[in-house]
Write a structure and sequence with these properties.
By secondary structure, the chain is α/β, with parallel strands linked by helices. The chain has helices at 19-24, 58-61, 70-81, 101-106, 119-126, 138-146, 159-174, 188-197, 206-216, 245-257, 268-276, and strands spanning 34-38, 108-110, 116-118, 178-183, 220-223, 237-239, 242-243. The strands form three sheets. It has a three-stranded parallel beta sheet, with helices on one face.
């Protein structure tokens, strides 16, 4: 989606307290010029994260391991011997090199640019296969019913989260990193279900709480509580709280049309052309 060099850092951040240690683990000379930050709504819910602990900078610096954990090796071979993974399917018959069991058997994994590819899930969704993960948002609805797994109930925004956000943006300003923040969308049906439950009132306060913080540092912040607000729809979602490539391309286009600083690293006209040539409801780019 970008014309300049870039990298994805998905799966590095869970809560708000992770951002600063992660950035500090990167040598200053290698800090990005721009950083797009997805602020998941539950980051501002104390019922999910009280922000009582902060990871060490070394959590990321020392996180890579060349050899797998012995317990993982045992589980993998146990499944292989049980016939869960047919050995003949390990043979590569695809021009795209697949590394790892998830990529080989589920066609799901990270592409060369670090973005997530949901191949197996997408095929199931396109075929209306009820074994697709979170099919018709059944798993997400269950989380809402139980109030767990990131869908914990919350009445008001955690003020500690707003303070930590302020410290993050302050650090980025000092390091001359331009921040573009956004609150990512839920599927419309999921958003409606959450509103009907009346257990997520904190979400209605988030944007009004964080916008002044972003404005103070002259950074950008965008709010997309549901996919229809970024010109997308439920048929373009991977699950109840993840849009597909089309959804996020449309979010980026809205940012650019709004005058985002990201216009310096991509071309909105090209993005719109790419979007019109989408492969299906979920994919624009092949690799």
């Amino acid at each position: 989606m970008f014309d300049s060099s870039f990298y994805n850092a998905g799966y590095t951040i869970s809560g708000l307290n992770d951002f600063r240690p992660f950035l500090k683990s990167i040598p200053n000379a290698k800090h990005p010029k721009y950083i797009i930050i997805g602020l998941d709504q539950w980051m501002f819910n104390s019922s999910w994260d009280r922000l009582n602990s902060t990871p060490s900078v070394k959590s990321w610096q020392n996180s890579f391991s060349f050899y797998p954990d012995p317990d993982d090796i045992y589980l993998i071979y146990k499944d292989l011997y049980a016939g869960k993974y047919p050995l003949d399917s390990l043979q590569q018959h695809n021009p795209v090199q697949k590394i790892g069991l998830n990529a080989t058997f589920n066609n799901i994994g990270f592409r060369n640019d670090g973005s997530m590819y949901y191949g197996g899930q997408i095929v199931k969704l396109m075929n209306h296969d009820r074994t697709a993960r979170d099919y018709e948002y059944s798993n997400t609805f269950d989380r809402i019913k139980r109030g767990n797994q990131r869908f914990e109930y919350g009445k008001s925004v955690n003020e500690k989260a707003v303070l930590e956000l302020n410290e993050l943006l302050k650090y980025c300003k000092e390091q001359k990193i331009e921040v573009i923040g956004f609150l990512p969308p839920f599927a419309d049906k999921v958003y409606s279900k959450m509103n009907e439950s009346d257990n997520y009132n904190y979400m209605k306060e988030i944007y009004s709480k964080v916008k002044p913080v972003f404005d103070n540092f002259k950074f950008e912040i965008y709010d997309f509580p549901k996919v229809s607000l970024c010109n997308s729809n439920d048929n373009e979602t991977i699950d109840g709280f993840h849009g597909g490539e089309l959804t996020y391309q449309k979010i980026l286009i809205i940012m650019l049309d709004s005058g985002s600083i990201l216009n310096q690293v991509t071309n909105v006209k090209r993005l719109k052309i790419d979007l019109s040539k989408n492969k299906n409801n979920y994919i624009i780019y092949d690799n």
